[in-house]
Design goal:
alpha+beta, eight-stranded mixed beta sheet, 258 residues
Length: 258
């Protein structure tokens, strides 16, 4: 999941789909992104699949852990000590949802919830291979949609050492915050649109880079996805948001530079 722990520390380190129908999801994403899917035959991983671009890992696809859990994409942030991170999360006002545990010989992980209610995971890598974040069909951006983003910004700065810059978007659009590590923008955050139903909690969304947002959007709908936000321009390029046939929301991104 990482070339080296230091390369992914405090940055997105992995992206993973937990789904009610892994077989259907594998077919959908292979068709949409051209991913090559490898399903583990090791029983300890429960049919977990790696999506690949060439010889690089691009994402994981696994079954939801309980029938009540939603089908959703999860963002993992790299850490060199996920146990210490769990302590820091709690001290900063977050919650530990799944205490740190080993994932075979691949690494160690934990699941957290920030003060706004959004879930985020931590990953301490050992054996997992490289995580591709370059080029078409790879993970490209993580974005927090928060109810009370002013609470989230200091939380993430405290636990991951992120800095931030906030840009006024104009009109009725909320300001947009970019989280940074050593001057590099690695994730975004904004206040959730008040039109979103109250029962929708704060959440992190994964975006995948594509060469042509409009073509990828049509391809996703043809494969059974549902439109959430149609293709549109933003200062850094073009994007769209869809949900897959099992209900997991994700973004399509065509960047011209951040």
């Amino acid at each position: 999941m990482a070339q080296a722990t230091t390369a992914i520390k405090n940055k997105p380190a992995w992206v993973e789909l937990s789904t009610s129908d892994p077989e259907a999801a594998r077919t959908f994403y292979a068709r949409l992104f051209g991913w090559r899917i490898e399903v583990s035959d090791d029983p300890q991983y429960g049919g977990y699949a790696l999506a690949k671009i060439g010889d690089q890992d691009a994402a994981g696809i696994g079954r939801i852990q309980s029938p009540e859990a939603p089908t959703a994409w999860s963002i993992y942030i790299g850490s060199d000590d996920v146990d210490a991170l769990a302590t820091k999360i709690q001290a900063a006002g977050g919650r530990v949802i799944a205490a740190p545990f080993d994932v075979g010989d691949q690494g160690r992980m934990a699941v957290f919830q920030d003060p706004c209610g959004a879930f985020i995971s931590g990953w301490q890598a050992t054996a997992m291979r490289g995580f591709s974040t370059d080029g078409p069909n790879a993970f490209s951006w993580a974005e927090l949609n928060a109810r009370g983003v002013e609470k989230a910004i200091p939380f993430y700065e405290t636990v991951f050492g992120w800095s931030h810059r906030t840009t006024e978007m104009g009109g009725d659009a909320p300001p947009y915050t970019e989280f940074q590590v050593d001057g590099e923008s690695i994730a975004g955050a904004m206040e959730m649109n008040p039109m979103v139903p109250a029962q929708v909690p704060s959440y992190w969304m994964a975006y995948f880079e594509v060469g042509d947002v409009d073509a990828a959007f049509r391809r996703a709908l043809d494969a059974g996805a549902r439109e959430m936000v149609p293709p549109g321009d933003f200062p850094g390029g073009r994007f769209a948001i869809v949900s897959d046939p099992q209900g997991a929301a994700f973004g399509l991104l065509q960047t011209t530079g951040r």
